[in-house]
Amino acid sequence: MEFDPVLVHEWLRRTARRTPEKEAILYGREQWSYQRLDADSDRVAGILIDLGVRRQDRVVILLGNRPQTVVCLYATLKAGGVFVILDGSTRARRLKYVLENSGAKVLVCQANQAAVVQEAVEGLDGDLQIICVGDDPKSALRPAIPGVSWASIFEPRPSGTVATGPATGDRFPRGIDIDLASLIYTSATTGAPKGVMCTHHNMISAARSIIQYIGNREDDVILNALPLSFDYGLYQVLMATMFGGTVVLEQSFLYLHRLLERIAQTRVTGFPIVPTMVAMLLKMRDLGTHDLRSLRYMTNTGAALPVRYIRRLRELLPHVRMFSMFGLTECKRVCYLDPDELDERPDSVGWAMPNCEVTVVDAQGDAVGPGEVGELVIRGSNVMQGYWRDGEMSSQVYRQGPYPASRRLYSGDYFRQDEAGRLYFLGRKDDMIKTRGERVSPREVEDVVCELDAVVEAAAIAVPDEILGQAIKVFVVTQGQCEEKEVLRHCASRLEAFMTPKYIAFVSALPKTGNGKIDRRKLQASAAERPE
Fold first, then answer.
1. Which is more confident, 432 or 487?
2. If exposure means fewest CB atoms within 10 Å of the residue's CB, which of 11, 149, 268, 413 is most exposed?
């Protein structure tokens, strides 16, 4: 009798045995079969072990959205280590922090990142080993950083061939499902980045629940243009490996025409998106000329889609099942709305996903009634272990119940529920605006502003006000003619008086994090620099 694998990398081994020639990753003209992915990660795992990686040692991967990142993450797990994926464009300051905070044993980078790596490792304590991938880096990286270990671990070879090497499964340590598998560093919108500790059990449990409600199947082809350093992007690969699908991996979502062409070329069935991507899509005048008939579903999480975006997408792509979801790195995913309810309740993110329990609580931790605002609290095996080397913050966010399995995650997000228990996201506690003695959700204001045809994106923040305490200022990106008085008049007709913005600022673009979320901290800083 064969049981389901309990370790993340065992799912790769299982799928490679079952469908060795199946395409696991499509990257440009490259095709990586499951057999190749498994064999390559075996070989790289052997290299990591030879470099001294032992169980629960951390390996930082700085390769960006490319198949080699996937190979390295599975290789790290096979070697018994903990993978840490950073965006390929990470700056030296952040890289240095992550290397120090994680206590990394190995850094995997590219030769063209020599300057960033050199600056980041200067003055580091410890015995960091560096593997450089790509063209021979001797002229760039090796002379600059003493002790660099260069390994040509990805030699070019004809498509369809499989690399072999001395590493075999017999060399690999035996792990258990409560071992750490990954540290996922937050985007650091407030304070220093924090490494969210994810065990094998956490990651498999979360992935299994998502696969279940989306209804993924072996013939799914997923277009992933989201960063692999972002858990939303990372899980596209982990999930596909579990159900045996194919991932079309792209470097970025900035070149939308290329993405739309890839959907047609590779017959993509699943397309994970974020609001920034939707805003860009809806600005395209030739969207209707692209063949998107293969799409079966789209998903959104990370930030809420304005209702107008949802309705417009439904008009353009009526055959596509759209999943509005909510999640956070600290537990991966929380809830989703059944696509059949989207037209009727486009502002809801639905119910808790399978094997996850949610409660909306007040400041005392007691559950609130329908329609009342409170903080979302999550319980389940998808709830991660806490923050790496930050017990104080972990104890504030991850609070222990009367027994170990009753540990709960306090999300820091305000929600309400309707009579049926559906969830409605209102905003981060830190982002909520307190004006005229009332609490205002930025999302509610943004949704109303985005109803205007000329508005592409909007972001509401609080600014100090002597009379109101805080006033509402909305930054607006438009396509076409739109005036301040038009926005204010529309808001006044659709919102309560205390929710109506006092200030409107037209901008060419909203600042974004690397994950495509609106960077509200930068908006607050710009508002402080130019007070009204």
1. 487
2. 149
